[in-house]
Amino acid sequence: MQTMRAPAAQGAATRVAGRRVFRPVAATKVSTAVTTDVSKRTVPTALEEGEMPLNTYSNKAPFKAKVRSVETITGPKATGETCHIIIDTEGKIPFWEGQSYGVIPPGTKINSKGKEVPHGTRLYSIASSRYGDDYDGKTASLCVRRAVYVDPETGKEDPAKKGICSNFLCDAAPGTEITMTGPTGKVLLLPADTNAPLICVATGTGIAPFRSFWRRCFMENVPSYKFTGLFWLFMGVANSDAKLYDEELQALAKNYPSQFRLDYALSREQKNRKGGKMYIQDKVEEYSDEIFDLLDNGAHMYFCGLKGMMPGIQEMLERVAKSKGLNYEEWVEGLKHRNQWHVEVY
Ligand code: FAD
Q1: Exposed/middle/buried for 22, CB within 10 Å: 0-12, 13-18, 19+?
Q2: What pLDDT score was predicted for residue 59?
Q3: pLDDT tens-digit profile of 63-75?
Q4: Which of 53, 176, 260, 319 is 20 to 30 A distant from 164 in Cα terms?
Q5: Residue 179 forms beta bridges with which residues?
Q6: Is residue 90 within 8 Å of residue 46, measured between CB atoms?
Q7: For residue range 122-132, what is the model confidence (pLDDT) as tens digits?
Q8: Predicted pLDDT of residue 316
Q9: Binding residues for NADP(+), per the UniProt record (predicted)?
Q10: For residue 147, which atom of ligand 1 is closest to its CA?
């Protein structure tokens, strides 16, 4: 069940393309996650220079930014609420596509020794490219699922046990201060070869780093990064209302029919070949011959989302590898060795 936004947020909930969307009142320039304009934009390419930023800010010396806007991007029948959150960073916490930020939620907790300590840092994959949703490098976006606790006995939500940081972020009013660390992570980076096909497999908020990829590949004019390969996104969610950034994805599919492919696995709406629920591994399996060929020819394969997605995917890939006379372990090892295999699950 989708949780409702707490009244603390100022603004108005409106409906865009059938979805409830939060519109901030205080922002000077409103960005929106619901865009169909995927034309290439000019960006300040100074952000292409230098080494990849890593752990610029730490728990002891964090960065303070402000929330610009929070939008619910799931529909009413989604199996939970996910928000697109734009943060005003003034460009002072630069990052590369595929990295994550840490967020330290406000408040304290009592640790195992009975001492009052600040809450720990939570990581969030960055859902915009380094240029942000406004293409000026002054913002960064997160895609956050509100963690709720449903009592297994009563089936009811227990607000006392709700996730601390995700609820803080999803309830944040424009202007709320946010304490950040990072950027962190080098597992999901884009390959230097701009012609290498990218096969991105996401479940839920695991789509976040791939949004940073597709914006860089298709929506920005970066002279030193001209993407010429195939971008293939497999996205697993429960139902149509749980799709994330679908408007942007449909526009890309329409504008780049030979370079952008999109396949959904809607577990509660579609059936797999055996008549069971359509999970992400079932959808990927439908194209396994093509995927194995692409990987043989230098494609990069990325996985991001909940940890639980990997066993099913691995079991499927192992079965397919065997049917092709391949030793699965050796095959995966080879991909890892050639840096073609990227997994970040949580
Ligand atoms: P917490 O307060 O840490 O609680 C965790 C869970 O425990 C919640 O489900 C909560 O309901 C439950 N809980 C709390 N109290 C109790 C209790 N007494 N009994 C039983 N259960 C309880 N998340 C995203 O949404 N988007 C991302 O892009 C994203 N990227 C990530 C990238 C990485 C590399 C990693 C490691 C994690 C990422 N996460 C992402 C997950 C994120 O870091 C947090 O773990 C998540 O938001 C939950 O944090 P929270 O503070 O809301 O919940």
Answers
A1: buried
A2: 96
A3: 999 999 999 999 9
A4: 53
A5: 64, 104
A6: no
A7: 999 999 999 99
A8: 97
A9: 125, 145, 205, 267-268, 277, 305-306, 344
A10: 9
Which own/partner pairs from 315-321 qualify as long-range (CB within 8 Å, at least 24 positions apart)? 315/281, 316/281, 316/282, 316/284, 316/285, 316/288, 317/288, 320/285, 320/288, 320/292, 321/292
Q: Which amino acid is located at 181 in the chain?
A: T
Task: Report how far residue 237's alpha carbon sits from residue 121's, in angstroms, rounded to the nearest whole number.
Answer: 26
Ligand 1: atom nearest CA of 145 is 25
- Ligand 1 proximity of 163 Cβ (cutoff 6 Å): yes
Q: What digits encode the pLDDT tens for the residues 237-286?
A: 999 999 999 999 999 999 999 999 999 999 999 999 999 999 999 999 99
Is residue 277 marked as binding? yes
Grouping H, G, I as helix, E, B as strand and the rest as coil, residue 342 is strand
Phi and psi, residue 185, nearest 5° = 100, 135
Q: Long-range contacts made by residues 315-324, C-beta under 8 angstroms, separation at least 24?
A: 315/281, 316/281, 316/282, 316/284, 316/285, 316/288, 317/288, 320/285, 320/288, 320/292, 321/292, 324/292
Phi, psi for 168 (deg, rounded to 5): -60, -45
Contact 67, 25 (CB under 8 A): no
Residue ranges in the chain modelled with pLDDT below 50? 1-31
| DSSP category for residue 159 | G
> In the annotation, is 124 catalytic?
yes
75 alpha carbon – ligand 1 mean position (Å): 21
Query: What was the pLDDT predicted at 18?
Result: 44
Token look-up 């946010």 returns: 178
pLDDT for residue 35? 78
Q: What is the pLDDT of residue 295?
A: 98
What pTM value is reported for the model?
Answer: 0.92
> To test the ligand 1 pocket, which listed residue (124, 144, 153, 307) has its Cβ within 8 A of the most ligand atoms?
124
Supply the pLDDT for residue 34.
Answer: 64
Find residue 140's DSSP bridge partners: 87
Is residue 57 annotated as a catalytic residue, yes or no?
A: no
- The reply, when asked if residue 205 is annotated as ligand binding, is yes
Q: Is the CB of 338 under 6 A from ligand 1?
A: no
